[in-house]
Amino acid sequence: MTSLNRIIGIETRRSGVVPVALLVAVPAAALMIASTSYYDGRWLRLAVAVRTVLQLALPLVVGGGAWLGMREHRHHLGELLASTPRPRAGRIRPLAIGLAGLVAAAYLAGFAAGMPFVLGRAGYFPVATLSLTAVGALSLVAAGWLGLAAGRALPRLIVIPVLVVLTAGLTGIGPMLVHDSSFDVDSVPPALWLTPVWTFTVQDFETVTGRIGLLQTIALLGLAATGLLLASVGRRGIAPALVPAVAGLAGAALLLPATSGAALADDARALVPRCTDAGPSVCVIAVHDYQLDEITAPAQQVLTRLTVVPGAPTRAAETMMDDRSGLPVTGPADTISFTDAYATYRSDEGFSVAAFQQGLADQAFAPDCDVSTIEDDYYLGVAVVGAWLAGAGSLLEPHPDDNFGDRTVLIWGPDEIDQADRAIQALRALPEARQTALVGQVWTMTRTCRPEAMAALMALGKA
Amino acid sequence: MRTVRAADIAPQTYRWSIEARNLTVKAGRHQAVNGLDLSLGIGVHGLLGANGAGKTTLMRCLATVIQPAGGELSLLGAEVSRGSRLRGIRRDLGYLPQAFGYYPRFTVREFVEYVAWLKETPAQDIPGAVQRAVERVGLEAKADAKMKSLSGGMLRRAGIAQAIVNDPAVLLLDEPTVGLDPEQRLDFRDLLRTLGVESCLLVSTHLVEDVAAACTDVVMIHEGRTAWTGTPEELAAAGADSAPGDSPTERGYATVLGRYREQAVR
Amino acid sequence: MRWMTLYARSRQVPRSLFVALASVALACLLWAVFSDDPTVSDRLMTTSVMLGAAVLGLTLGTVDEELNRPAAHHWPRRRALHLLLALGVLVALALATRLGPAHFEPFPVVLRNVVGLLGLTALGAVVLGPDLSWLGAAVWTLIGVLPFSGPSPDVLTQAATWTVQTSGTTAATVCAAVLAVAGATAYTFYGCPERAA
């Protein structure tokens, strides 16, 4: 076996396997580092991000495999090889092993490039991270071997870019276009789960079911086996070589879920609350516990200021978003609910403490009655209260930058900002007892739906 | 040091290393070898013939690259047309094709090692066999240079090194002297003589003087048939003074070929 | 004319032309079948244009550059002409889609991508040789069509994913223009390397 190992070493170093692997590893690592906000602190999202980058890696590995498969032809080695005893299957083995090893390593390099942004921050490790990564690496092995077979069968240079584009179209671009034209996840054909390129939207608290990992593994093992067989056999062996791929794809198709959405499930362990030990209780779901350190102090500041209000909430806890309203699902009366803080309260500079605190204020002071009877002033009033809760001298979010493409949507006009800022300053100038009394009135109003208290608050700014 | 294998000391069970009876081989649709008879044993055999005489097609067939279209061919006592024994024959075969292909980024040593592996040389013998092959062709100094950095002459020598790495019982060299300078050709003839001591070495060439200097006997083919066989001395002696050529061997070649053509016409 | 025919055949131009045509035709056909929108998705359009540039890139050199070089032709002019013809072919194919149900549009975006990708391919031919000339264009295009690439206010992102930016995005246009000028200049004056990779 030692001689095979030596030949694997020679082939791997000299045949172009290394450039192919670098062609995957370098752009993959660069893309991972350029898109950390998608996955930072979350293992499963990291694994999904690398699987998304497969859309680039898979076609390049198929092309690279084809390039390597043409090697004997390109260097006119056929004549010499035909006179040697080692059969074709044995001859291709060192190259196939070297290629498989290095493209799998290149995949892991993409994963490793994202690890510094997760390692030590994430407190929850979903096991699906491992299967997602293993399937991703396996897909590159299958791609490499299929490419090898194609290059051997059709040693023409023009085949390589054609294969690259066909692979990209079939595994990534095509599925993406199908997604673009669908309204929700269940209107997407479940067959799209057959591609190893990740094309679905996954929430942080969701996980991909084991069934998907299984069916993708079966399909890819079949394809990999067919690739290796096709690269090994002569013309007569083509039909039997196709059997594993057909069987694998058929088996995978049988395992497909009835709807695309059924492939994703809530991860109960990701949803377990993780709370602060000291001070007013602040909780996040387990998968977001990397956010806890940063959001605890601002949340506790708001909770502490709120204690002056009778019957005010004493806890802040992360919940899911209500799909219809886009607001957090409310919990018990003593709890302010918020959704994924990093995702919801994000500005160009990253997590926005001010927006988060305003969000908590909005939620705490959410009217407990029909919203349509509330005047516009109400929301500006809550913005004033938010600033007061955060101890700020002006509006926390004068320009909430919800980016819609290149447009920035402003919630408040310049007059309103002026008015609010004056109200905040006037409020803070009042004696402490008067401040808490006013805020207490606003709080009571939200419970009883009486708008006068808010008018009194805003009147401070007009005077 | 080279280890002695059981096969090396086993008694030989065949008379001729290469034996062909009424052999026909096609190159495309053309019958390039057409009813050729050949019996070659240990020694250095020169294969002479004009361009297009069928030399390369014959070499390719003897190297088991292409199948005979008809007739009989035995290599090392085994029938070539029976595919099952091909693998065994190929282990004892060395072949330098006319168009020698190689991986340009391999070093000489790596390429020779690769071929040794392709010839299923036992793992423990490979390092020694590679070193010996590289030394025999005088490429030690360039052993770790990339193939693409070699000059034409060195490339030929690397090609011979890969052909002899398995100590082949049958060694086929197709136009090995192309690209060698005069001094290299002298060295090369020495190499041929040593190789011919223990194997059946067939050298195809159209350079008559190489044959005269290094071969133990000569096979001349014309239009796919054996035109003449004999020793270089016999070839030189056969030369008529009137025949074209600058040496006795060249005149012998011209004379023998001319005589064969006349017979063929009749 | 006879010389042109021989030149084209020696570089396997017909095969490349066929694949470029097939690439554009297939993109339009698939789009027409699966979508009601007359404008082909920019991702599909760009990928199809990239394949066209890639296969035409293969014709930018010959098997043996060393053999060609000493021939007494005015190579720089010939190479520039070759690139211009490739550009013409791709632009003509893109314009021809307007005759069918699925169009490559808007034209400024299509032109930007054709010019930029062809320039990148020519640059690839100078650096890597004709066989792999398409590699850079393929990698950059595949990055541009990733799901998280798209129109962005960030200039760096605009340049990195120039193939999918909206028409009039300065950074993307500049990126394509630089690639086109660099590729055309380098290829015209240097041609392909003598020893291909």
UniProtKB/TrEMBL annotation, chain A:
<feature type="transmembrane region" description="Helical">
    <location>
        <begin position="45"/>
        <end position="68"/>
    </location>
</feature>
<keyword id="KW-0472">Membrane</keyword>
<feature type="transmembrane region" description="Helical">
    <location>
        <begin position="238"/>
        <end position="256"/>
    </location>
</feature>
<feature type="transmembrane region" description="Helical">
    <location>
        <begin position="212"/>
        <end position="231"/>
    </location>
</feature>
<protein>
    <recommendedName>
        <fullName>ABC transporter permease</fullName>
    </recommendedName>
</protein>
<keyword id="KW-1133">Transmembrane helix</keyword>
<feature type="transmembrane region" description="Helical">
    <location>
        <begin position="20"/>
        <end position="39"/>
    </location>
</feature>
<feature type="transmembrane region" description="Helical">
    <location>
        <begin position="158"/>
        <end position="178"/>
    </location>
</feature>
<keyword id="KW-0812">Transmembrane</keyword>
<feature type="transmembrane region" description="Helical">
    <location>
        <begin position="124"/>
        <end position="146"/>
    </location>
</feature>
<feature type="transmembrane region" description="Helical">
    <location>
        <begin position="95"/>
        <end position="118"/>
    </location>
</feature>
Automatic annotation (TrEMBL), chain B:
<keyword id="KW-0813">Transport</keyword>
<keyword id="KW-0067">ATP-binding</keyword>
<dbReference type="InterPro" id="IPR027417">
    <property type="entry name" value="P-loop_NTPase"/>
</dbReference>
<comment type="similarity">
    <text>Belongs to the ABC transporter superfamily.</text>
</comment>
<dbReference type="Pfam" id="PF00005">
    <property type="entry name" value="ABC_tran"/>
</dbReference>
<feature type="domain" description="ABC transporter">
    <location>
        <begin position="18"/>
        <end position="248"/>
    </location>
</feature>
<dbReference type="GO" id="GO:0005524">
    <property type="term" value="F:ATP binding"/>
</dbReference>
<protein>
    <submittedName>
        <fullName>ABC transporter ATP-binding protein</fullName>
    </submittedName>
</protein>
<dbReference type="InterPro" id="IPR003593">
    <property type="entry name" value="AAA+_ATPase"/>
</dbReference>
<dbReference type="InterPro" id="IPR017871">
    <property type="entry name" value="ABC_transporter-like_CS"/>
</dbReference>
<keyword id="KW-0547">Nucleotide-binding</keyword>
<dbReference type="InterPro" id="IPR003439">
    <property type="entry name" value="ABC_transporter-like_ATP-bd"/>
</dbReference>
